[in-house]
């Protein structure tokens, strides 16, 4: 673990420390990146539109949340199955008022919510970067998962540690970013995060103990995450922890985003990469911290 962390740290030490620094050192690379990201973004936009119109992909994940919030909390559906609900009963409680809406209206509001949050995440970028990056995230908007909201939680969680309860109570291992405070020895912040999580769990369990028992049993039965192998999932989580520790020691919050990608229980396709939308905001935090300390 220590050797892996050291190797990653050496690799990152050799890299520029900001987007502007990177652009000034590698102008040719940046020009090529702009040339490539636009057609790639347009391709993703076309594929997303095609999936939304010609298949049943539109809102396929959000539909599971809507059904569960209406009382159809079924942990018997395995990950990957249609309308399988994978998260804790606490998430259901938050969604229940919104789930009173008809499905079409619920989906419209869900997509609008994620689109607004995504615009906020990408605001630090210039338009020539933010527009194609937005298009790259369209597959997530089509299926209506929670990766954009998790990216926002990573950003807000740097200031309000209790927000890390959201990733932990949904995709569990994606809450690896809470270890940031432990790696930096910020024990008060870590205690706040743990206290917020414990409070939510206590209240939610009191409201729905049977639901919690079913969810914990569900997690045990599907603890391997992505259907590749238990070993690969374990190694991904170790690498995610290493990235968080390096980022905490070097004061580079942007590493939290790729760490969350690696720690995602289900790492299939490109949609989990939407978590990288947190990088522009997290990079801004890193730069601000560097300026404040200088």
Largest sheet: none
Number of helices: 16
Please identify the structural class as seen in this structure.
Answer: mainly alpha
Percentage of residues in strands: under 5%
The backbone outline, from C-alpha atoms, is globular
What is the domain tally? Answer: 1
Uncertain segments: 7-16, 289-294
Structure described in brief:
With 294 residues, this protein is mostly helical.
List the helices and strands and how they pair.
Blueprint: H1 2-13, H2 19-25, H3 27-54, H4 60-69, H5 89-95, H6 103-122, H7 127-136, H8 138-143, H9 147-156, H10 165-168, H11 179-183, H12 187-207, H13 209-221, H14 230-250, H15 256-262, H16 279-293
Helix pairs in contact: 1-14, 3-7, 6-9, 12-13, 14-15
Overview of this protein structure:
The protein has one domain. Helices cover 67% and strands 0% of the residues. It contains 16 helices and no strands. The protein has helices at residues 2-13, 19-25, 27-54, 60-69, 89-95, 103-122, 127-136, 138-143, 147-156, 165-168, 179-183, 187-207, 209-221, 230-250, 256-262, 279-293. The longest helix is centred in the first third of the chain and has 28 residues, at 27-54.
Descriptive tags:
294 residues, mainly alpha, 67% helix, globular
